[in-house]
Amino acid sequence: MNRYTVAERALRSAAPHQLLDAVRSVLTEHYQAESVELLMADYGLTVLQPVAVLPHTTQPVPLHSSPAGRAFGSQEPFTEPLGDGRSTVHLPVSVRGDRLGVLCVTAQEEWPAPTVRELADIAEVLGHEVLVAERDTDLYLQARRKDRLTLAAEMQWQLLPGRASSRKEYALGAQLEPAYAIYGDNFDWSSTADTLVLTVTNGMGEGIEAALLTNLTINALRNARRAGISIADQACLADQAVYAQYRGRAHLSVLLLEFELATGHARVVDAGSPQMLRLRDGVVEPIAFEAQLPLGMFEETDYVAEEFAVEPGDRLVFVSDGVHAVASPAGERYGDRALARAITATRLLPPAEMPRAVLRELTGHRGDLTPEDDALIVCLDWYGR
Asked: Given pLDDT bands bounded at 50, 70 and 90, which one contains residue 370?
């Protein structure tokens, strides 16, 4: 049995809370590793947090100015010479484009390229096992937080499918702010062999009430989607669920899109939606659809799907009110023009990084003012078949 297989089996048979112990044992014995550390990206994507059993924690690692952060951002192994003959290889821990963290492995000497590729494969297996283990242990979820999450934020993060996803036809990335105190904005996606369904939600209200409203809506949409019905009917059923609970006192805006992976043809339901912009051939332009009523506003609202098409090379960016309506200390709105500039400036970043880069600029525009609304950015790059 080769050593990679030993590592894979050790991870698959380890208890959920002992994945790091399992990979550390194998890498020490079979790869002569000196030390092994697992860092998880925090909710705000600002630091990498070491995985440790609470309360025994060590200092976080900056995401944007560290060797581990470089591996996280590039999604490629990065070798850091330590100056005494030893070296640390930083390996991205990701699952289908969703970046979870970094595995840092130190040895007495620099490994050859084939060994680094083998270690990168082990880090990928570790990522899959971490996602499975999160059903049974809080260890990795605790490691992701550098601050306390509000209860509303806890509910919202648990509702999300991830922060990124990629296939040969597309790549997705998304981020919410304030990461530790979000209310009602949300995103969701699901794919089959032939389709991608994307939902972008601009929530209503604050705190727990906003989180409960969004949770009801997202689960109603998922329930309808999993029944195999059209996106127009998905919107109708979710609208009925929200109205039945709130009787029109609360509602929320949703943009539903269903893409055919083979052609780029899409069906869209704009239920009072967040904004969508398209970057094509270097030009950013807003894409408007026929505005329909937000979900839950009235009883038995009918929704109609529109037709839309994306082309290989297109980038679609979805933003909530908390992005384009943000005001500076002088009262100047961020606005469509600044948003278009930010989309152009970040055009070379992958979708997994683009939302956070734009949100950093948004924070600079807002200054010291406390956010008055959630800020949501979803980025979709379309490659086609």
From this structure: low
Q: pLDDT confidence of 369, banded at 50, 70, 90? A: low
The predicted structure's pLDDT at residue 332: 67
CA angle 307, 313, 317 (to 5 degrees): 65
Does the pLDDT value for residue 168 go beyond 90? yes
Q: Which two tokens stand for residue 311?
A: 């082309």
Is residue 124 a contact partner of residue 93, using CB atoms and an 8 Å limit? yes
The burial class, CB within 10 Å (0-12 / 13-18 / 19+), for 288 is exposed
Alpha helices in 137-184 (DSSP H): 139-143, 151-159
| DSSP structure string for 315-366 | EEEEE-HHHHT-B-TTS-B-HHHHHHHHHHHTTTS-TTTHHHHHHHHHHHHH
Structure tokens given for 379: 């980025």
- Asked if 382 contacts 314 with a C-beta cutoff of 8 angstroms, the reply is yes
Output the pTM of the full model: 0.94
What is the rounded CA–CA span in Å between residue 326 and residue 347? Answer: 22
CA-to-CA distance for 152 and 208, rounded, in angstroms? 5
